[in-house]
Specification:
mainly alpha
C-alpha cells in the first residue's frame, strides 16, 4: 500500500469511527424503547465499519479497537432484539411502534421506557467485541505471508 493510500485509509477509519460513536451516543441521550430504526442504524454502522476497516492489516491492539467499535455500533441493534424478546408481543413490537403505557413501561410523563438494562447491553457489547476480535485475529493471521 502506498503512503498516500495508507494515510487516506487512516483518515477514513478515524472519521468512520467518530461518526459511529456520535450516532450511538446520540441514541443514548434520549432514552426510550428500542425500535426498528435502532436495528437499521446498527446494521448500517456495522456494515460501514466492516467495509472500510476489515480489508486492512492491523496490529493486535487495533483488532481490539475494531472489536470494541463494532460492539458499540451493535448496541442499538442488541437493544432492539432484547426489547422485542421482552415485549408482551414480539411480533407486534417488530412490525409496529404501538406502546401502551398501561401495559408497557413508561415514565410518569407517559414516555416509553425500555425494558433493556444497561447490564444486558454491556454483556452484549462484550460478547460482540470478543467475537469480532477473535474473527479479526484469525483473518489477520491468514493475511500474513508464510
Amino acid at each position: 500500500m502506498e503512503p498516500e493510500q495508507r494515510a487516506t485509509s487512516s483518515v477514513d477509519t478515524a472519521a468512520l469511527s467518530a461518526g459511529a460513536v456520535a450516532v450511538v451516543v446520540a441514541l443514548f441521550i434520549s432514552p426510550g424503547m428500542y425500535g426498528i430504526i435502532n436495528l437499521i442504524i446498527s446494521l448500517t454502522l456495522v456494515l460501514a465499519i466492516v467495509a472500510y476497516v476489515w480489508p486492512h492489516t492491523r496490529r493486535w491492539l487495533q483488532s481490539v479497537a475494531v472489536g470494541a467499535a463494532i460492539g458499540l455500533a451493535s448496541l442499538p441493534g442488541i437493544g432492539f432484539v432484547e426489547e422485542a424478546a421482552r415485549s408482551r408481543d414480539a411480533i407486534a413490537h417488530i412490525f409496529s411502534s404501538s406502546w401502551e403505557c398501561g401495559k408497557d413501561p413508561c415514565t410518569e410523563q407517559g414516555v416509553p421506557r425500555s425494558r433493556v438494562s444497561d447490564q444486558d447491553l454491556a454483556g452484549g457489547w462484550l460478547v460482540i467485541a470478543i467475537l469480532v476480535l477473535a474473527a479479526d485475529r484469525l483473518s489477520q493471521r491468514r493475511r500474513k505471508p508464510s
